[in-house]
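User: Can you predict the 3D structure for this chain?
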Amino acid sequence: MTARTTALDAGVRTAMQSVSAAAKRGLGDPALAELVQIRASQLNHCAFCLDMHLTLARKHGVRERQLDLLAAWEESGAEFDARERAALALTEAITVLTDGFVPDDVHDEAARHFDGPRLAHLIALITAINGWNRLMVTRRIPPGSTDW
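Assistant: Here is the predicted structure, written as structure tokens:
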């Protein structure tokens, strides 16, 4: 087996960090941003991103119970409110494009909870974390690594 590269062009890293930061700011809800990023990272099996975003979620006041039940959010009753559920459904639809597109009903439900600019930022955030997940998983960057 060939050793995997940990290299990432500094310009690419900076651009991706800028997209992620702008999307988070525009969404305007740091706790929800972390839930979304954790859920995408769970689906993509990205240990590096899970480690990072679980730590950030706690800093932003996400409840431990939500973190415990996030992988089964659809079955968790009232643990997640309607807005969070809409964001998580959109996260899953964008992350797992099994039908080649995001279903209209999922997008429409998210649009009921987020105005146009916030919805655009949410979509950008989900897209950005999926990009990060793929960069980290492909290179097998371990949790807590500073070499990425």
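The mean pLDDT is 96. Helices lie at 10-27, 30-43, 47-59, 64-69, 82-95, 104-113, 116-139.
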